[in-house]
Amino acid sequence: MTKPAFDPDKKLDDLLNIESEQAQQQSDTAGEKPGVDGKASGKFDFDIKPEELESFLNQYVVDQERTIEVIATKVCTHFNRMKIESRLTDDERLVGNIKSNMLLIGPTGVGKTYIVKLIAKKIGVPFVKADATKFSETGYVGGDVEDLVRELVYEADGDINRAEYGIIYIDEIDKIASSKGLYGPDVSRTGVQRNLLKLMEEAEVDLKTPHDLASQVEAAMEAQRTGKVSRRKINTRNILFIVSGAFSGLEEIIGKRLNKQAIGFEKKKFSSLNRMDMLKMVRTEDLIEFGFESEFVGRLPVYVVLNELDENGLYKILKNKYSTVVLGKKMDFRAYGIDLSFDDEALRLLSQKAHEEKTGARGLLSVFEKVLIKFEKSLPSTQIKTLEATAELVNDPDMVLKHLLIEDGIHSFQKSFLVDHGIYLDFDEAAIKKIQEMAGERLKSVKQLCNDLFNDYYHGLRLLKMDHFTITSDAVEHPGEYLNEIIKNNFNKSAR
Ligand SMILES: Nc1ncnc2c1ncn2[C@@H]1O[C@H](COP(=O)(O)OP(=O)(O)OP(=O)(O)O)[C@@H](O)[C@H]1O
Ligand SMILES: [Mg+2]
Asked: Fewer CB within 10 Å, N or C, the chain?
């Protein structure tokens, strides 16, 4: 699989920047600013309602309505609650402090990261994404979970107040489930879970890394200079944690539980469920059985299971006006001044092929690359300025490209012949076919071959006073003899 030259997330940034600039202008005139107001230190200004966030997400994300409903609601509630936090009495604060941290379960390429990124952009909070696999318990190998909180400060341009309302998104969380092998639970993964769960609830994290020597030295020097130790800490109480993973094997655990609990006819019903339906019945005990500490699962009160995307879902993604796949590919070609378009049948076929890859929407990217990569390589060196992707092109890109290149070679030769000699050479179909064969045999470009065969034709054609001449397959096979014959006939005729 070739790596896409185009970064869909980058495109997403561009799209959203346009939107947020528009939103900014509107709200500037209305005198209010959406999202978190970081500049008014500590002031938290959030005013988005669940339905507003939901409809925003549904514009971009396809076939995940149920997921979006839950996520949008919980995210809005989380941030709206932060707003009233400062007004709560101590007693109220003690009672109600359960955060809506979320667990997203779903296979690759169905929109987990996409949804979280869109949310962070829309509500304008700092956002950090990481893979759980990079953490180790001690932090000496790989990273330390606390680094994520420090990264939030970086994302908030150093504004700790803003960082304290950020979103931390951790993917591949299923990889830190402990494998309960022969020697008891997997200590290191359990350790990472414990470190994380502290942050997920409430912890104070030092802005300066304990193992970052440079920042330690800097702090010591500052202390010497000023006589003060500035130990700035970030509180994680209001940071929203969203974790996700594919959780392969979890369905079996759920299935076993259901079967144990089920009676007669229910057993049959459960055995006919597919993987995603099974996952939708996940319960805390299944996640514990999968290898999570109960305290860890306890910090994740919201579970969401995303849908798999079928062929039609993938097609809808391509037709979506924000589709980064289509826009991205168009931009790849536009970079060479080529206008690329797709007809509907081509998009259907591409979705079908992408579905066969079984990598969700990620399959779209790889299929687009596979089909178009040779065009992307060859067309920039030609005169071709438009390309329409049709079903024929998707089914047999090599053949279509070959034809395009031949046509282009011939056009280019025709053009230079006309410019140089004022004579238009036409090629009939049989001639084009012959040229294609010969170019292949002689390993020459079509234009080069045409040059070799017909560049001298202008002497003869001038003699004949012709400004238009059709090349046939005979002319291609024996160019000299063919033209001589015509000249001879012509003079014989006029001599008579
Ligand atoms: N449901 C969807 N609707 C629209 N676009 C989608 C959807 N799912 C995925 N995409 C597109 O595919 C890209 C990759 O999806 P995303 O990064 O969200 O996958 P993921 O679910 O996080 O998968 P992984 O488990 O591999 O990280 C997105 O940037 C987006 O362009
Ligand atoms: Mg992801």
From this structure: C
User: Measured between alpha carbons, how far is 55 from 369 in angstroms, rounded to an integer?
Assistant: 31
Residue 241: CATH number of its domain = 3.40.50.300
Q: Which of 172, 160, 163, 177 is nearest to 112 (CA)?
A: 172
Which residues line ion ligand 2, judged by CB < 5 Å?
A: 112-113, 171
Q: Whose CA is nearest to atom 12 of ligand 1?
A: 361
Q: 444 lies in which domain range?
A: 402-495
CA 416-419-424 angle, 5° bins: 80
Residues 277 and 353 in one domain: no
Q: Which pLDDT band holds residue 23 (cuts at 50, 70, 90)? A: very low
Ligand 1 proximity of 62 Cβ (cutoff 6 Å): yes
477: domain CATH number? Answer: 1.10.8
pLDDT tens digits for range 193-231: 988 999 998 889 988 776 666 666 766 776 777 776 665
- Mean pLDDT score of the chain: 84
Considering the domain architecture, whether residues 344 and 388 belong to the same structural domain is answered as: yes
Q: Which helix (H) or strand (E) holds 389?
A: strand 386-389
